[in-house]
Amino acid sequence: MAETEVAQVRFGIVGCANIARKVARAINLASNSILHAIASRSIDKAKQFASDNGLDPRVKIYGSYDQLLDDPSVDAVYMPLPTSLHVHWAVMAAQKGKHVLIEKPTALDVGELDTILEACQSNGLQFMDGSMWLHHPRTVKMKEMLFDSKLLGDVNYIYSTSTTSASPEFFENDIRVKGNLDSLGALGDLGWYCLGAVLWAKNYQLPTVVTALPDVTTNSDGVIVSFSASIQYKEPSSSGATTNAIIHCSFLADTSMQRFLESQRLHHPATRELRIVRVHVGCKVCESSYRVECEA
User: Fold this and answer.
1) Same domain, yes or no, for 69 and 149?
2) CA–CA separation, 108 vs 135, rounded Å?
3) Vertex 53 angle, CA 49 and 57, to 5°
4) pLDDT digits (tens, 9 = 90+) for 244-276
5) The domain containing residue 161 runs over which residues?
6) Ramachandran area for residue 222 (φ above 0: left; ψ -120 to 50: alpha; else beta)
7) Per the domain annotation, does 167 fall within a domain?
8) Domain count across the chain
9) What sequence ranges are listed for the domain Gfo/Idh/MocA-like oxidoreductase N-terminal (predicted)?
């Protein structure tokens, strides 16, 4: 292989969900990956997905997930399946020697996730969830700022929201509100971003207290469609600071995504003057913003 030639990871997509349309395109746009195969529970649906998305005729089309996992040319699989199916198919993929990229939420509970991780680790494979924002250049820059002791201090307060105004059709047909398919509802779909933002801002330190607030709303199937929670870090950091966070996620509100972080550090040691720094990241529909405010 020439030095300039890049080895390509050959992806297979297990499940033809709507989000797979974007990921299929992203796989082919990346210089080091290529879409090798797709699979659905029916060959007709897989063929329709290939046609609708203009896939290369060389992409293999399978009418079952097992057939794709048995393809020796597939290096890694992307799984946009209902959460209730993740543990079965992710473990099977790992047993077949495939790296696993899985849609969020990765599992229904920590026990299922541990099972998936063990399958990947024991077979020497990589596991990754499909959270795009963590890999955005803006996120990398924000983390550099957040952990620059000369710029910011300890994070004292975090407010993170992710909401969307779901349609009647969504509440009738979408898997994210079906108890037998995605029983975590808004907690798993939208809360994944909010909880991830809190953990990211705390460098993945686990909180000491997590409390669901009284405004939890569920549908007739018992699936969460709107909720808020308080997340507390009561153990002080090396500088003595504690952190409080509030998250809110809902299928019942206008589409919006907000991240607000506040920190403070000693600005003038002699006078004990504090500088408060606030970092705002916002996105509403297709508009996004990012700003930092300081006050002494």
Assistant:
1) no
2) 24
3) 85
4) 999 999 999 988 888 777 776 544 444 444 455
5) 135-295
6) left
7) yes
8) 2
9) 9-128
